[in-house]
Amino acid sequence: MHHHAYLWTGPKARFDQEALRRPPHPEPPPPGSRPELVQRYREVAAEFPTTDLPPLETAYWLIKPPSLVRGTWPDPTAAAAWLSEQLAAYQARFTSEAHRDARHLATLAASATERLTSGDDSSYGFYLDQPAYLSLALVTCTPNRARPNLPCPLAS
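Above: the chain's sequence. Below: its structure in token form.
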């Protein structure tokens, strides 16, 4: 088992494009469906696996391009240390004063260590100034508990 790190930051309006953050339905629209429904299904089916937007379900990071992996560690503590570094790097930009509190951020990193150790994923999101959004995720791989059928993005 190992853990992959993902980071996304961008305009809040882009983050809010939820259709591109969820996998397409397993079945395409039935024959005779409205053309705009068929077109939207095709767009989502093509874009979901390749877009850099954070998926609504953390495990689906594993089907995104390998270039989006920011780091990989076999040790949960090392993965959580990466998270802690990212939290510190963005801390001053968090719009919530409570999220800027160093004790709160240390608690998040400790929680991530516990979750990863038990085989779960860890995902956090923060509103930033501008308005922007920061998404940080640590995803357990080979296997992922929530989606064990998803392959490792770095496997050749």
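DSSP finds five helices and four strands in the chain.
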